[in-house]
């Protein structure tokens, strides 16, 4: 009587072993969608770079930027921001940008240093602020503007749906602390309605028309 052949069994074992080592198909992750950020987050990223330029850097002004490449995010956020820092030791100012994407012109992803310029020192509204004074973020400032009845922001926003909102950081002659200026429009020159919120305390200051 002939003995059963072992070759079929060995063949099956080889097939099973090969199957056991077959790697699972690689699942490609969808690229993360960049999200617009708040002004306080952006300014601290730029401030870190400004400090390497001048250890005594102080914030002079700041503004949110609208980009064609990215839709505006939640109220109080922006895809890009531009800030100007000054140094008394250098008698100079320097602009910086922070963007979540590469943009038109000279706008780069992340924090980017711009050109230097002369600065004569503080004068009225052209006075810098310590970073420690920027305690309130832009999303909170927007919320305060909308929830304060005497600001009339909610009323104006309802009458002008879809109007772009731009945010500035500035000093004013009336108020001692830097203020977030929440304005409806592309710029302060073209806007007919804006609300000032104290960037240190978060208090409503005034409505500008």
Characterization of this structure:
The chain has 209 residues and is an alpha+beta fold. The protein has one domain (37-208). The chain has four helices and ten strands. The protein has helices spanning 7-20, 39-53, 138-147, 153-159; strands at 37-38, 58-65, 77-78, 80-87, 92-99, 110-118, 165-170, 179-184, 194-198, 204-208. It has an eight-stranded antiparallel beta sheet. Strands 1-3 form a two-stranded antiparallel sheet. β9 and β10 form a beta hairpin. The mean pLDDT is 87.
In short:
The chain has 209 residues and is of the alpha+beta class. It has helices at 7-20, 39-53, 138-147, 153-159, and strands at 37-38, 58-65, 77-78, 80-87, 92-99, 110-118, 165-170, 179-184, 194-198, 204-208.
Strand content: 25-35%
Helical percent range? Answer: 10-25%
The N- to C-terminal Cα distance equals: 108 Å
Number of helices: 4
Largest sheet: 8 strands, antiparallel
Question: What radius of gyration results from the CA coordinates?
Answer: 27 Å
Q: What best-fitting shape do the alpha-carbon axes yield? A: globular
- The unreliable regions are none
Strand order of the largest sheet: 6-5-4-2-7-8-9-10
Helix-and-strand structural type = alpha+beta
* Mean pLDDT over all positions: 87
What are the key terms here?
eight-stranded antiparallel sheet, 209 residues, two-stranded antiparallel ribbon, globular, single chain, 4 helices, 28% strand, alpha+beta
């Amino acid at each position: 009587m002939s003995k059963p052949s072992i070759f079929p069994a060995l063949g099956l074992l080889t097939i099973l072993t090969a199957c056991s080592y077959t790697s699972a198909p690689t699942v490609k992750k969808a690229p993360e969608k960049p999200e617009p950020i708040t002004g306080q987050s952006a300014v601290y990223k730029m401030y870190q770079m400004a400090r390497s330029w001048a250890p005594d850097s102080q914030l002079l002004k700041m503004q949110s930027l609208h980009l064609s490449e990215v839709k505006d995010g939640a109220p109080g956020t922006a895809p890009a921001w531009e800030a100007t820092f000054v140094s008394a030791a250098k008698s100079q100012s320097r602009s910086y940008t922070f963007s979540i994407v590469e943009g038109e012109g000279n706008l780069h992803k992340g924090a980017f240093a711009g050109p230097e310029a002369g600065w004569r020192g503080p004068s009225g509204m052209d006075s810098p602020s310590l970073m420690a004074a920027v305690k309130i973020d832009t999303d909170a400032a927007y919320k305060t503007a909308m929830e304060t009845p005497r600001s009339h922001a909610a009323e104006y926003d309802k009458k002008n749906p879809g109007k772009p909102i731009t945010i500035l950081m500035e000093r004013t002659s009336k108020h001692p602390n830097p203020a977030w200026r929440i304005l409806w429009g592309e710029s302060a020159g073209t806007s007919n309605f804006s609300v000032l919120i104290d960037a240190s305390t978060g208090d409503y200051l005034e409505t500008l028309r």
